[in-house]
Design brief:
The chain is elongated and about 50 Å long. It is about 75% helix and about 0% strand. The chain has about 120 residues and is an all-alpha fold. It has one domain: Four Helix Bundle (Hemerythrin (Met), subunit A) (Up-down Bundle).
């Protein structure tokens, strides 16, 4: 599976809809949310890899759902799409496909992490 390349890594319209880009105080709150996301997501990704390797695809779907929600709330569109794709994979999908999907999710996370860090976390008030 290749992530939909037309999706932005970070959809700024989602962040704007939170009205968190307008003031210094709100910007600080947004940075805290992003940092929380970046601090908690690696553990979810590790769980996903372990679930995929063990063949526990129901647990893998639950982890993908969790990561999809936090990603979507922060506008990480490609990551949310990749998680949604994994969630929708049917039972009986070959194990290698699950593993490839987790690798794609991890790549999307890395891309989002880099953009968040570059565009939001480097800004100090």
């Amino acid at each position: 599976m290749k992530t939909n390349l037309s999706l932005p890594t970070i959809d700024l319209d989602v962040l704007r809809s939170w009205d968190l880009l307008d003031s210094e105080e709100q910007g600080n709150f947004l940075r805290e949310l992003i940092q929380l996301f970046l601090n908690t997501s690696p553990a979810i990704l590790e769980q996903m890899k372990a679930f995929a390797a063990a063949g526990d695809f129901n647990a893998l779907r639950r982890s993908a759902h969790k990561l999809k929600g936090s990603s979507a709330n922060l506008g990480a569109a490609k990551l949310a799409f990749a998680c949604s794709h994994l969630e929708d994979m049917p039972d009986g999908t070959p194990s290698v496909t699950w593993l490839e999907s987790v690798a794609e999710i991890e790549a999307c996370y890395t891309e989002a992490q880099q953009q968040f860090s570059r565009e939001f976390l480097s800004i100090q008030t």
